[in-house]
């Protein structure tokens, strides 16, 4: 101990107690055989003082006991059972990363952007193969397209246009997930209330999310498709934008927007409604409020598989319209014209060309996206002690 002059006073042993020669009446109970992990003896503060010397209780004794990790089998004097349980629980939880962001809208946007970037990069090769299969530019099967890309461009060819894809998908997914979460919370009835509409709120919220993100980021989607298909025409993102504007003006950047909007409504509505429904079913069946990362990955993947299969013909028509008159291809007047022309030339299988790699890409992409989004929301918290 240190006195007023700054000198360290000696401690004495008194009947299994440490006593200070300052006569303050401090008592330290030694638990034989128990040692503090750092190597020293662990002493717990006694709750009573020496009555002969006026009696004195060490200030903040409870805090000292609460926030020092106890060795196994050691219990502090006067320490409540719930305090000991709190310490042990904190030790078991381990280190958790928390980033404090007070604005809930900003938390959702950041989480959505990260989720979009991670999920799209993970499945970029499958996206490239799927696009080539849809327009038939490098072969008529996944194996043929893969061999053609590897022969011409190598591994980098599988990630061609991925930078543009990330730039497009990150804000798109951020807007999409933000709108879905916001609208779904507004439309969903609170506990004990009657439903506000006859259809599931997640269905409407999903459609709103898809439309909002498409309107904002569609030009980047078109440029990404052109960069993937027309390998030698453009020298990068900026060059593609300039040349497309020179060729057809601003309207050209939104070629195929109508089928995209029509296609994204059923896809996004089905995707988010399926995800929300499966989440609720999981909580009800397993009686768990929190859903782990693996479970979220599986639920999101199942939702992606369902929505992708149901709306795939619209996606094929959209891709054909985006490519336009490249390499002498037919220019379609509208989505119905595109669907009818593809059906006439290639039959029903033409409307589902590329469904296999599409599901291989869309299913894990949806699962990874939802998993990253939920994980980021747990990391980005309003307060440091939020769970």
UniProtKB/TrEMBL annotation:
Solcar repeat windows: 103-186, 197-281, 291-379
Topological type in the membrane: Multi-pass membrane protein
Record Gene3D superfamilies: Mitochondrial carrier domain
Keywords of the record: Membrane, Mitochondrion, Mitochondrion inner membrane, Plastid, Plastid inner membrane, Repeat, Transmembrane, Transmembrane helix, Transport
GO biological process: transmembrane transport
Keyword Signal tagged: no
InterPro entries the UniProt entry points to: MCP, MCP_dom_sf, MCP_transmembrane
Compartments in which it is found: Mitochondrion inner membrane; Plastid, Chloroplast inner membrane
Entries under Pfam families matching the protein: Mito_carr
Keyword Ribonucleoprotein among UniProt keywords: no
Primary location recorded for the protein, binned into one broad class: mitochondrion
Any one cellular-component term (Gene Ontology): chloroplast inner membrane
Family: Belongs to the mitochondrial carrier (TC 2.A.29) family.
Stated name of the protein: Mitochondrial solute carrier protein
């Amino acid at each position: 101990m240190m006195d007023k002059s700054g000198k360290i006073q000696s401690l004495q042993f008194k009947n299994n107690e440490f006593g200070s020669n300052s006569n303050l009446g401090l008592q330290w109970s030694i638990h034989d055989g128990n040692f503090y992990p750092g190597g020293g003896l662990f002493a717990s503060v006694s709750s009573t003082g020496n009555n002969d010397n006026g009696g004195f209780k060490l200030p903040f004794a409870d805090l000292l006991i609460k926030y020092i990790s106890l060795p196994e089998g050691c219990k502090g004097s006067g320490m409540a059972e719930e305090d000991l349980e709190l310490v042990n629980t904190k030790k078991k939880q381990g280190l958790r990363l928390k980033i404090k962001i007070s604005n809930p809208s900003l938390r959702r946007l950041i989480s959505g952007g990260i989720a979009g970037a991670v999920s799209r990069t993970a499945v970029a090769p499958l996206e490239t193969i799927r696009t080539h299969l849809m327009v038939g530019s490098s072969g008529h099967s996944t194996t043929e397209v893969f061999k053609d890309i590897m022969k011409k461009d190598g591994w980098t060819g599988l990630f061609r246009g991925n930078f543009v894809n990330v730039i497009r998908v990150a804000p798109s997914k951020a807007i999409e997930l933000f709108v879905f979460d916001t609208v779904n919370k507004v439309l969903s009835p609170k506990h004990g209330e009657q439903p506000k509409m006859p259809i599931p709120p997640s269905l409407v919220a999903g459609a709103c999310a898809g439309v909002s993100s498409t309107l904002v980021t569609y030009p980047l989607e078109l440029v990404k498709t052109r960069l993937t298909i027309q390998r030698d025409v453009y020298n990068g993102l900026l060059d593609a934008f300039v040349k497309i504007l020179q060729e057809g003006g601003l309207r050209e950047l939104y070629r195929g927007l109508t089928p995209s909007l029509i296609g994204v409504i059923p896809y996004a509505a089905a995707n988010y409604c399926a995800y929300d429904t499966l989440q609720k079913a999981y909580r009800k069946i397993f009686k768990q409020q929190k859903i782990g990362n693996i479970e979220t990955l599986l639920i999101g993947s199942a939702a992606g598989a369902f929505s992708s299969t149901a709306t795939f013909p619209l996606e094929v028509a959209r891709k054909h319209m985006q490519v336009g008159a490249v390499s002498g291809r037919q220019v379609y007047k509208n989505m119905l014209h595109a669907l009818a022309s593809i059906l006439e030339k290639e039959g029903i299988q033409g409307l589902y060309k590329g469904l296999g790699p599409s599901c291989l890409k869309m299913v894990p992409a949806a699962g990874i996206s939802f998993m990253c989004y939920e994980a980021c929301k747990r990391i980005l918290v309003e307060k440091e002690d939020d769970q």
